[in-house]
Amino acid sequence: MSLRDAHIKMSKSDPQEMSRIELCDSPNIIKTKIQKATTDSDKHIGFDPQRRPEMSNLINIYAGFSGLSIQQVCDRYTNMEKAKAAFKIDLTDVVATALKVVQDNVRRLQQDAGYVDSVLSKGAYQAREIAEENLVEIKRKIGLR
Questions:
Q1: How many angstroms separate the first and last alpha carbons of the chain?
Q2: Quick check: 77 and 44 in contact, CB under 8 A?
């Protein structure tokens, strides 16, 4: 869900860049977006999608990227002084670390134009073969062959 409004989906078409984390965001940008993510005035970390949708959204993101359960995430910050601040710092690290693998692959592919071209060519060839088979079948069914 959006980092600015947990009632709407996180979307790349949202005009507010601060509403989403993009795959190629740098760790500093991720940190800024998470630090400015909407939460609530409660001091503790708690999962309650109805009453605390924004906090629950961040907990879901943490759980999704870390592989921990929602309860495990919440338990990490129980009875902690400045739990929200610590949580957002940790969430930044979890997201940035997980996205680093994707970002490294994107950079590698951007530097290897020959590989990308070969994948595109192979895909285009396979698509033409499938399209040709489909076209032959369609023409047969409508009586053109």
A1: 51
A2: yes
